[in-house]
Amino acid sequence: MSCTLQRLRQMDIRKGVVSLATGAGAIYLLYKAIRAGIRCKPPLCSASPICIARLAIERERHGRDSGELRRLLNSLECKQDEYAKSMILHSITRCVYLLESEASACTNEDIALVGSMLDDKDNSVKIQALNTLKAFSGIRKFRLKIQEHSVKVLELISTIWDSELHISGLRLLNNLPLPDFVHPQLRRVMPALMEILQSDYILAQVQAVRLLSNLAQKNDLLYDILNCQVHSNFLNLFQSTQPGSLLFEVLVFAERLSEGRSSPHYRAVKWHYNEQSVHEALFGDDSRLADRLLALVIHPEEDVQIQACKVIVSLQCPQDVGVRPSCPPSHSCFNHGE
User: Fold this and answer.
1) How far apart are the C-alpha atoms of 157 and 170, rounded to whole Å?
2) Distance between CA 326 and CA 136 in Å, rounded?
3) What is the DSSP string of 260-292?
4) Is 50 exceeded by the pLDDT of residue 328?
5) Which of 78, 274, 321, 329 would be 262's cystine partner, CB 3.0–4.6 Å?
């Protein structure tokens, strides 16, 4: 009996030791797993654009071509749904900005591939394609190829009322020298550009007026801009309550128009304007532009102040601009002693 009890005690002790060892082992394994989890870094390669960029930069740092941009372009050629195409284009845009050497190694065929996405039925794909073309336009050798899509971009801007698309398309156009063959299309979309300028979306307005300011320097487009119809409250764009970024750009636009209409080349022709045209709103007999400009001379932002003064100077003596360096006060456009 005593032997049996002794054996049972020994078995209980052994079970306890095994149980204790098993528990300790489990705790140790759990500790190792937690420690490994803390030490491990997130994988460099994933579908997110940030991880893609991190991988590409890491490889470029070590003097190796990441191949990520080429992989993305190749995947764009495959049949994808709209969401996948949009995400791929977004990733391509990031890679172009981050990996200059790999972006420069791309070809005109790659640009054509991205440009073909402008025909996609989904607006988000169009927007991402515009952003990708904008990224590629920073590389000189691709600008001529991207210019081929200018007419299509203008068509999208003028036929689709989407603020994000307007911003992306106008940013692309503002980053390109627009060739003469685009001018006929520009004339056709001038009313749409004016509508965007008079919309309530500041970022789109800024991009639209920047483009219009550049076009105002083209002799064959100046009249089309000045004769373009605008809303009766067009001068609200010059109110001091507008954001400074927009005010500065519309003042640059006004200065360009003032200088253009005062040039000998433009004054050589007798032009006729619509009653509700840009010309009548800014330079007509009943225009209140002078009042707005005088209020902006004391604007809190210095850039706006200076640009308002430049417009005032350009308006002082339009008939003599380019003929003599200064004008008598009596020739001022500011009536009633203004």
Assistant:
1) 8
2) 45
3) HHTSHHHHTS-----TTBHHHHHHSTT--HHHH
4) no
5) 321
